[in-house]
């Protein structure tokens, strides 16, 4: 930019030397002002508007300053808002008119305007083009950074939801199996003098439950290697088997199903987990209680799931029954039901029992 300003000044200087029509002192003053204007270009980044205004004012009577003035118009258009550029450009138009009137010795006023105005407009137009192009590139870069950040956040959210799903599966599946193991192992510890037939039966249930817990654990761990949809998942049709497992463990369970039509797999799986958690909690906190399970609903009206138990029997709880992590199962159930836009209610009853109930949407 410095070389362009110098070249422009030397070109005009050469033409004026050939036909000098102004006093020599004015010609020397014009050269000094032009030299200072070219040197000032090196300071264009600090105060471009102030420098441009100063050069425009000098260009009202100095001819050789036109080169630095044009370059400063370009700099202002690149680095300042269009409104500021328009004000500076308007001031340069006024300076051009003043120069055409004051310095009529350099040529026809009309010719001076026909040459000067297009040059200034070209400098401003080029600067505005660069300005908008830079803003476009900057916006695209910001958009790319924002898209990358959003993609990273979505990936982290997906991993979080996957971990939550795995945690719920581990709790629901293993909690049910391990509670069966705990009940029978605790019964053996509490009553070591039981008949051999009862001990053998309890040992068989413990062995089968441990084997099934291992199988369930393998399925849950498989979530880490395959999509959940590819793994075998329980449905509402598996409720009778779940109730039978609890009966074999010594619980008194009554199952009542009143559904009209085939329940969707997603809704049925959530209902199964609700019943499973309810039975697990009964074994942990209300041993010996009677359990009544009711599942009823139809398409369009929703599916109601209720697990109700009586007050626990007056028997001591074996010390082997784990109590750590209390409440985690209900928290997981709340999350499951919320995912399918259902409702979950639970709490003690006046008679001393406990009620766990949920309503799940069943599209018609």
TrEMBL record:
Catalytic activity line of the entry: ATP + protein L-histidine = ADP + protein N-phospho-L-histidine
Cited Pfam families: HisKA_3 (PF07730)
Keyword Mitochondrion annotated: no
Transmembrane segments: 24-43, 55-78, 84-102, 109-129
CDD domains: HATPase_UhpB-NarQ-NarX-like (cd16917)
Stretches assigned to the Signal transduction histidine kinase subgroup 3 dimerisation and phosphoacceptor domain: 163-227
Name assigned to this protein: histidine kinase
Originating species: Planomonospora alba
Upper taxonomic lineage: Bacteria, Bacillati, Actinomycetota, Actinomycetes, Streptosporangiales
């Amino acid at each position: 930019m410095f070389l362009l300003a110098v070249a422009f000044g030397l070109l005009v200087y050469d033409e004026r030397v050939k036909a000098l029509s102004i006093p020599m002192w004015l010609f020397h003053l014009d050269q000094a002002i032009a030299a200072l204007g070219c040197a000032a270009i090196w300071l264009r980044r600090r105060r471009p508007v102030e420098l441009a205004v100063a050069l425009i004012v000098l260009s009202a009577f100095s001819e050789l300053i036109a080169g630095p003035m044009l370059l400063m118009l370009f700099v202002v258009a690149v680095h300042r808002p269009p409104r500021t550029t328009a004000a500076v450009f308007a001031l340069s138009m006024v300076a051009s008119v003043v120069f055409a009137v004051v310095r009529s010795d350099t040529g026809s006023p009309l010719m001076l305007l026909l040459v000067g105005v297009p040059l200034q407009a070209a400098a401003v137009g080029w600067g505005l083009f660069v300005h908008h192009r830079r803003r476009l590139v900057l916006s695209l870069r910001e958009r790319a950074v924002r898209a990358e950040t959003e993609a990273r956040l979505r990936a982290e959210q997906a991993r979080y939801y996957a971990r939550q799903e795995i945690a719920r599966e581990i709790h629901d599946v293993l909690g049910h199996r391990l509670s069966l193991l705990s009940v029978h192992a605790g019964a053996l510890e509490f009553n070591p003098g039981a008949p051999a037939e009862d001990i053998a039966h309890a040992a068989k249930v413990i062995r089968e439950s441990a084997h099934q817990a291992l199988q369930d654990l393998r399925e849950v761990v498989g979530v880490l290697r395959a999509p959940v949809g590819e793994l075998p998942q329980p449905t509402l049709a598996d409720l009778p088997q779940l109730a039978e497992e609890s009966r074999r463990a010594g619980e008194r369970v009554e199952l009542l199903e009143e559904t009209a039509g085939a329940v969707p797999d997603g809704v049925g799986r959530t209902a199964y987990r609700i019943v499973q958690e309810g039975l697990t909690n009964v074994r942990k906190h209300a041993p010996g209680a009677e359990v009544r399970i009711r599942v009823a609903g139809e398409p369009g009206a929703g599916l109601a799931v209720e697990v109700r138990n009586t007050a626990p029997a007056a028997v001591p709880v074996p010390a082997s029954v784990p109590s750590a992590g209390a409440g985690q199962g209900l928290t997981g159930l709340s999350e499951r039901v919320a995912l399918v836009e259902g409702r979950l209610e639970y709490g003690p009853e006046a008679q001393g029992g406990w009620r766990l109930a949920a309503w799940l949407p069943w599209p018609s």
